[in-house]
Specification:
By secondary structure, the protein is mainly α. It contains eight helices and no strands. It is elongated and about 45 Å long.
Length: 115
Amino acid sequence: MEEEIKDTILDNESIGNRIRQGREALELTRDQLAELLGISSYYLGQLERGERQMSLPVLVKISEKLHVSLDYLVLGKDSHESHDTTEIEALLKKCSKKELELVIKLIKTVLPYTN
């Protein structure tokens, strides 16, 4: 395992694409995410384009604000952690289309501000 990690070359462009996709999935502008992270929008743009490699603390903040694992951001793989979503799934099945749209909008609004 240790050798596998040493041989891993970080693909900044792929990491940047995953950051951009995560930001867009939450319907955040670059300025909004940069503000949440405490970094400049210009720097975030460089990260999203793969032009710069970020520090570990910035990577962790991005992971937290986008609600994705570090494994996913760095390697494109989901972590082995799973969340018990059965209660949420049961509640969502009872919702009308209009209620589902409202729940999705609410989640997208709240998630960036947690952590």
